[in-house]
From TrEMBL:
It comes from Lentibacillus salinarum. The lineage of its organism: Bacteria, Bacillati, Bacillota, Bacilli, Bacillales. It holds the Pfam family DUF3231. It comes from the Bacteria. This is DUF3231 family protein.
Length: 186
């Protein structure tokens, strides 16, 4: 089975071969998208550090480690691009030191359900931000960078959804049954 990232990589190579206008300066929308997404990533890394410090659940730990790896790579790529283009960087919170999850009092840390649902909201928000940035980018390299970021966040979202379904943490809205539709028996 072909992986989601492989599909994007193939499409990306085709798009790069069609147009490469990297020589144009970033326009104000591209600068704003880069700056805003980097500020978002800087803050979500802090949340991921907190999650890793407070959970002992192997599935969540794995999800947060993958999320941290992706966020760190996004931060690095954006920082390099913004430095090359002369764009100021947003401030970044300080890293959280490693902590022993068992040393944190129960009432002061997030539950597993809260951790995974909140990180999943991050994946959704990030994918939306990246889709908007990609669609507004005129430079091919910037648009493709945001498409790559989006595909990586979507892949994390699928991993989170599988974990949430397996553990019973997935928040499901009520089913919509139009008037006159027979109600299924459960």
């Amino acid at each position: 089975m072909v992986k989601f990232e492989q599909l994007f990589e193939s499409a990306s190579k085709v798009l790069k071969s069609l147009s490469d206008n990297k020589k144009n300066p970033l326009h104000v929308g591209e600068v704003m998208a880069c700056w805003t997404y980097l500020a978002f990533v800087n803050n979500i890394i802090t949340y991921e550090e907190i999650g890793l410090n407070t959970t002992t659940e192997p599935g969540i730990k794995s999800l947060f480690q993958d999320a941290m790896e992706v966020a760190t790579s996004h931060k690095k790529e954006l920082t390099e691009l913004m430095h090359q283009e002369g764009v100021s960087l947003p401030s970044s919170p300080e890293s959280k030191p490693k902590a022993d999850p068992s040393a944190i009092p129960v009432g002061t840390k997030f539950t597993e359900d809260e951790l995974v649902n909140t990180i999943n909201i991050n994946f959704v928000a990030a994918a939306d931000m990246c889709a908007a940035a990609a669609s507004q980018s005129l430079r091919t390299d910037v648009g493709l960078m945001f498409l790559k970021f989006q595909s990586e966040k979507l892949a994390l979202g699928f991993k989170a959804k599988d974990l949430m379904q397996k553990k019973g943490w997935l928040k499901t809205p009520p089913y919509y049954l139009p008037p006159g539709t027979p109600h299924p028996k459960r």
